[in-house]
Amino acid sequence: MSGWNDKVIDEFRANGGQVGGHFAGEPLLLLHTVGARSGKPRVNPMMYQKVDGGYAVFASKAGAPTNPDWYHNLLGRPRVQAEIGTEKVELVARVAVGDERERIWSAQKAAYPRFAEYERKTSRQIPVVVLEPAP
Predict the structure, then answer these.
(1) Each residue's pLDDT tens digit, 24-52
(2) What gap in Å lies between CA 12 and CA 70, rounded to an integer?
């Protein structure tokens, strides 16, 4: 997966936040986290949804039975950065719950049906993470 992510990251940066292939025409950001155990910087490309006051990202891991590593990193260190287009922004992550989670998740599945497929493939509830501007 790392090699695939590296190609997407390089293409994103070379084209002002635009990529082709699997993510062509879709809202994509590069999420910068710090490894919860390693303390090393990590960068992950992922789709996002604009929400009131920030952005939502989805710990889908394509429907795998476990959450992605970046999600665990956010829980340990919620202050993150994201590259959106050509801008780098400072954000704080929080996990959406209840009605907020359902509203955001339903909109994502409606706009991008593969997220509904991911949900069907796993028994876990896919976390929705809201990224808001850091104070």
Answers:
(1) 999 999 999 999 889 999 999 999 999 99
(2) 19
Written as six digits, the tokens of 91 are 């954000």
Give how far Cα 62 sits from Cα of 6, 7, 47, 50, 93, Å: 18, 18, 12, 20, 21
CB of 96 closer than 8 Å to CB of 56: yes
Instruction: Please state, in angstroms and rounded to a whole number, the distance separating the CA atoms of residues 10 and 23.
Output: 13
Write out pLDDT tens, residues 56-66: 999 999 999 99
Q: Sign of the CA dihedral 120, 58, 44, 23?
A: positive
**Which of 115, 102, 93 lies closest to 27, judged by CA?**
115
In contact, 127 and 115? CB cutoff 8 Å: no
pTM given for the model: 0.93
Closest C-alpha to 94, from 51, 124, 30: 51
